Amino acid sequence: MSWLKRWEPEDSQFWKTEGSGRAWGTLSVTTFSLLASFATWFVMSAVVVRLPAIGFKFDTMQLFWLAAMPGLSGGAMRTIHFFLIPIFGTRLTITVATFLKLIPMVWLGFAVQNPETPYTHFLIISFLCGFGGGDFSSYMPSSSLFFPKRLQGTAMGLQAGIGNLGVSVTQFITPWIIGFAVVGAAGAPQLFTKATPVFDVKITKEAGLVKDVVVVGKLAEAMTVVKNEAGLVQDVIIAETDATKGMKTEVKKNEAGVVTDLTVKKIIKKDIWLQNAAFWYVPYLLIAGIICGVYLRSVPMKKPSIAKILKDMTDNKHGYFMTWTYIMTFGSFAGFAASFPLMIKTIYGNIPGMDAALAPDPLKYAYIGPLIGSVIRFAGGPLSDKWGGSIFTQLSGVGLIIGCLTLIFGGLLTPTSLDSFPMFVWTMLWIFLMAGIGNFATFRQYPIVYAFNPRMGAQILGWTGAWAAYGPFVFSSLIGGSITKYGSAIPFFAGAAVFYLIGSIINWVYYTKPGAERGDWGVGKTWWDRISESERQRYISMNP
Fold first, then answer.
1. Which of 468, 502, 490, 459 is nearest to 141 (CA)?
2. How far apart are CA 366 and CA 315, in angstroms?
3. Of 185, 270, 479, 516, which one's alpha carbon is 20 to 30 angstroms from that of 332?
4. Cα dist. 251→231, 259, 265 in Å?
5. What are 273-296's pLDDT values in tens digits?
6. pTM over cut 0.90
7. The domain defined by 12-186+273-542 carries CATH number 1.10.760.10
8. Domain map (residue ranges) of the chain
9. d(CA 475, CA 469)
10. Contact (Cβ atoms closer than 8 angstroms) between residue 332 and residue 400
11. Which H or E run includes 263?
C-alpha cells in the first residue's frame, strides 16, 4: 500500500511508537536518491572543462551555456514537482524521478566519445541533466511532512547537506574515474592532450629580449643555447633523448631574429574514459530507484487543487520574500557550483601574457566549495533548531555581500598573474560557506513561517526551491555573458551584492529583528509560540 493510513508527528506517543522509525527511514532512502539527483544535475559542470582537451571545438560562451542549461530545466522541472507530492505522494513521485535520471546519464556517456557529436546534442543532454535538479521540489517537501516542527532544521539540514554532496562527489570523482577503464567496455577511450611547463629551464630577459637561458638537471646535456655575436639568444635546440621525450620548444623572435620569449613544454597525451563520469551513476540510479519503489510510503493529506496551491504561495507577501532569500542562499550555492570550474578556467586560464600551460586545473579546486556548502548544512541544522533559522539567514546574506566586495575590490576578477589565485579560491570558498549556512537556516525557517499549516510549509519549500533552481542557469549565463561582453565578471558580482543586500534587509525586517512578524528564534521562541491560542486557531481556520 502506497499511502499511510495515519501520520501525526506532533503526537509524542505516535512519534515514539511509529513515527520516528518511518520518518528517519524515509529520510535515509530519499537522501540516498537525492545525492544522485545533485550529481546528475552538476555532472555537466565537471565534464565540460575536459571537452576542449579531447577534441571538441566549443568556444567559451558555448561551454558556459552547457554549464547553465541544467539550471534552466531544473527550475522548470521544480515548478512541476512542486505539485506532485500532494497529488501522487512520495513513493510514486520519488521512484519515477530516480529512474528518469538514467536518460541523460546514458546519453552523455555515449556523446563524449565522439568529437563530432553536434553541440545541439550536448545542449539537449545538459537540459535533461536538469531532471536531477528538478526533483528537489519533491524530496524536501516530502521529508518535511514526516517530521515534527522541533526536528525540521535537523532533518532538512541532513537531507540537503548529504544530498548536495552529490555536487562535490561528481566534481571530485570525475578526474579520478575517467583515468581508467572502469566501464571501458561501454566505449573506447579519448585522447587527452595537455601541455605542462618545464621548470628546469629558466630564462632571464632584458629590455624585452631573452638575455640568457639556464638549463639544470638532466636537461642540461640535451639542450643547446645558440647566441649571436652580441650574446643575445637566437635559438634553443633540444636533442632527442629519454629526458626530452615529448618536449616542445616555443620560441618567439623579433625581426632581427633575436629571441623575445621562450617556453619549453612537455606534451602529455594519455587515454581517458570521459564516459565514466556519466556511466558510473547508472547502477547507482537503478539500485536507488528499486529501493524507493519498495520502501517508500506517502503521508496522507487533503489533496488541494493546483489553483489552491498557487493561491497559498502567491496570495501573501511571505511567499515572495522567502523566494528572494532562498534564491540568495541555495540559488547562490547551485549557481556557483555550476559556474566555479569555468570561472577558474576562464579567469585564471587566460591571463594576458601568461603561459596557458601554467593555468590551474579547475577540477582540483571546484569540488571544495560545494563540499563546504554541503557539510555546513547538516552540521548546522541542529543549531538552527536551537537558535532559530532567521539569524543564520541574516549571517549568510551579510557574508555573501562581503565575498562579492572582496572579489571586486581585491582585483581577484581581473588578475594580472597567478599570485591572486589562492585568494580568489579562498574567497569563493567563503561564498560557498555563507550560502551553505543560509541553506540550513531556510530549511528550518520556512516551515516555521507556515506553522499553522504543515502542508503549506512543505509546499513553500518546493515553491522557493523551484525558483532557486534557476541559479545554475542564471549565474552561469550571466557570468559568461559578463566576461564575454565586459571582459570580466565584475558587473555580475556587483549586481549580486545588491541582490544580497535587499534579501538581507527583507530577512531582518520580517523574520529576524525583535518582534518580527514571522520571527524564528529557536525552539519555543518562534512567532507561533508568541501568539495566543485563539490567534493560532484563527490562522488554522483561515488556512485549511
1. 459
2. 40
3. 516
4. 17, 7, 11
5. 888 888 888 999 999 999 999 998
6. no
7. no
8. 12-186+273-542, 192-272
9. 11
10. yes
11. strand 259-272
**Lookup result for grid cell 552540521:** 379
- Give per-residue pLDDT as tens, 466-525: 777 778 888 888 998 898 888 899 999 999 999 999 999 999 999 999 989 998 888 788
Cell 601554467 appears where? 358
CB 463 within 8 A of CB 324: no
**Which SS3 state, helix, strand or coil, does residue 236 take?**
strand
DSSP label at residue 116: T
DSSP notation for 173-223: HHHHHTTS-TTGGGS--EEEEEEEE-TTEEEEEETTEEEEEEE-GGGGGTE
For the four alpha carbons of 55, 278, 128 and 362, in that order, the dihedral sign comes to negative
Do the Cβ atoms of 499 and 325 come closer than 8 Å?
no
| CA distances from residue 439 to 1, 210, 446 in whole angstroms, order as listed | 34, 54, 11
* Burial environment of residue 21 by CB neighbours within 10 A (0 to 12, 13 to 18, 19 or more): exposed
| Sign of CA pseudo-dihedral 229, 230, 235, 237 | positive
